[in-house]
Amino acid sequence: MKISVIVATYNRVDALNFVLQSLEAQTDHDFEVVIADDGSRADTKEFIDTFKSVSKLTIKHVWHEDLGFRLSLIRNLASAQALGEYLIFLDGDCIVQPDFVSQHRKLSKKGYLITGSRALLNAVLTKELLSWSSWDFKRFMASLLRYRLSGGINKFWPLTIKLGDGSWRNYKKFVWRRIKGCNMACWKVDALAIGGFDETMTGWGHEDADFVFRLQNMGLIRKSGSWSTEVLHLYHSINDQSNAAENARRVREKILAKAK
Q1: Prediction pTM value
Q2: Does the domain formed by 3-259 have CATH 3.90.1150.10?
């Protein structure tokens, strides 16, 4: 099964650099990277071109003009260029563990989608990590307990213990909680069947919940990727959430229509 990792980014080269390095260090090499660039400046393209020239990864860069927060559209454009049968959605500020692709592959199953989890890093730890000359997972894990005790990261055990597959991972119905677009996976044919992400949902917030709801509404079973696929979410300032309430209202409207 060929996998495409769709990495969403916007004007954050330092974080994207470490994310791509972490993907380069995967134990499973049978995947491509498609960067979904929501209108970054020229320095992002320059960085990606340079990284591609020395990397063993297969990388595509899909860009559109910066006309505001249009994550749904750029994810759809990137997905259209993906050659993989299976899509893993990742954010460009989420560093992955070496077995990230392998764990997603183990959990993948026809008729299912995966919603993964994240470990949140605070501003101090994020600054420390990005000061390193390169990403080093072993170095990070060697200090994980210290990071946790100091409050630099909000999780310890899910990064040290990996649990296998099982029916306990399956959600019985749609629930809003724990849907993170920064770590999510589904079959490309299923994404296409629902028309991908809703491109009319612009601005930050809830396009991921809408995507998951429509996949489940089509009959797919949502499976949790927690304790298996955790990503390290680098700190960033809060996004403009002025559209979040309207986006949430539209998702609730679809949920209520389904319930009738």
Answers
A1: 0.95
A2: no
Task: Scan for tokens 């399956």, then name that residue.
Answer: 170
In 79-130, at which residue ranges do the beta strands (DSSP E only) sit?
86-91, 94-96, 112-115, 118-120
Question: What is the C-alpha to C-alpha distance for residues 153 and 95, in angstroms, rounded to an integer?
Answer: 13
Which of 166, 145, 159 is CA-nearest to residue 223? 166
Q: Which helix (H) or strand (E) holds 6?
A: strand 3-9
202 φψ region: left (φ > 0), alpha (ψ -120 to 50), beta (else): beta
Output b/e per residue, 56-80; b: 16+ Cβ within 10 A. ebebbbbbeeeeebbbbbbbbbbbe
Phi-psi region of 219 (alpha: psi -120 to 50; beta: other; left: phi over 0): left
- Work out the widest C-alpha separation in the chain, in whole angstroms: 56
Positive or negative, the CA dihedral 200, 235, 35, 25 is negative
Residue 46 burial class via C-beta count within 10 angstroms: exposed 0-12, middle 13-18, buried 19 and up: exposed
pLDDT digits (tens, 9 = 90+) for 124-179: 999 999 999 999 999 999 999 999 999 999 999 999 999 999 999 999 999 988 99
- Strand pairing report for 231-233 and 118-120: parallel
Q: Cα(208)–Cα(118) distance, rounded to whole angstroms? A: 15
Residue ranges covered by each domain of the chain: 3-259
Element (H, E) at 233: strand 231-233
Q: Work out the angle between the directed axes of helices 42-54 and 13-24 (0-180°, nearest 10).
A: 20
CB contact set of 194 (below 8 Å; sequence gap of 6+): 211, 214, 215, 218
Counts for the chain of helices (H) and strands (E), in that order:
11, 10
